[in-house]
Amino acid sequence: MGSVWTPLLLSLKVAGWATVLNLFFGVAAAYGLSRWRSPLRDLIDSILTLPLVLPPTVLGYYLLVLLGKRGVFGAWLADMGIELVFTWQGAVIASTIVAFPLVLKSARAAFENVDKQLENAARVLGVSEAGVFFRVSLPLAARGIAAGVLLAFARALGEFGATLMIAGNLPGRTQTLSVAIYEAVQAGDDSTATLLVVITSVTCVAVLLIAGRLVPEHARRADLS
């Protein structure tokens, strides 16, 4: 059973860190895009959304080009004693990038649904821009953001291609649930593969159910209209 729970715990750690990073960077990017009026906005949004449509192996290759020992940033990081390839931290980076668009899209939609009159009223009362964000915009968009964060957690938990490319398959070190399932199938260990699949499926279904309850009712109606 130890061989089953080790990749689960590692996947939870990787997905947890990826979710925290996406919460900060995704919300910041979403708020900026929702309030920024520029011809470049759609271009930047498309670039940030690319991980949603690119094959994970392509993203993994990009990460190797950037973070490998001979990569654009990898050599510089190596001089500082920082290794990201074949480490769980590399898996965190891969999962963060793959799941980022889910937070970005959900949070941006939530911010765009915030009543601008409430924000303007706060400004008229002398509230700073930071105060408007933390006291008006963020609380009103919180449910949509939470839904996106949960979806990003589920996506990070099931990440395979980019993680395998950048972090490899080192049992106890970088072997996440998805990689462990792949290895079990390749080895013909059907019982372990089935157990890991059930654990992953139940976790993801639970996350999706919670996320569905967090989506504001008006957002659902907007999607249907």
Q: Explain this structure to me?
A:
The structure is a single chain. The chain is mainly alpha-helical and 225 residues long. It has one domain: Orthogonal Bundle (MetI-like fold). Helix content is 78%, strand content 0%. The longest helix has 34 residues, at 2-35. The chain is globular. The model is unreliable at 218-225 (pLDDT under 50).
Task: List the keywords.
single chain; 225 residues; MetI-like fold; 11 helices; 78% helix; globular
Briefly characterize the structure:
The protein is an all-alpha fold. It has 11 helices and no strands.
Task: Supply the CATH superfamily name.
Answer: MetI-like
What is the H/E order?
HHHHHHHHHHH
The shape, in one word, is globular
Put simply, the count of helices is 11
Portion in strands: under 5%
Estimate nothing, just give the exact number of structural domains. 1
Q: Structural class of the secondary elements?
A: mainly alpha
CATH structural architecture:
Orthogonal Bundle
| CATH class categorisation | Mainly Alpha
- The total of beta strands comes to 0
Question: What is the rounded distance between the termini?
Answer: 49 Å
Poorly predicted tracts of residues: 218-225
Radius of gyration: 20 Å
Percent of residues in helices: over 70%
Q: Please summarize the sheet with the most strands.
A: none
Query: What's the CATH topology label?
Result: MetI-like fold
Q: What assembly state would you assign to the polypeptide chains in this entry?
A: single chain
Average residue-wise pLDDT: 89
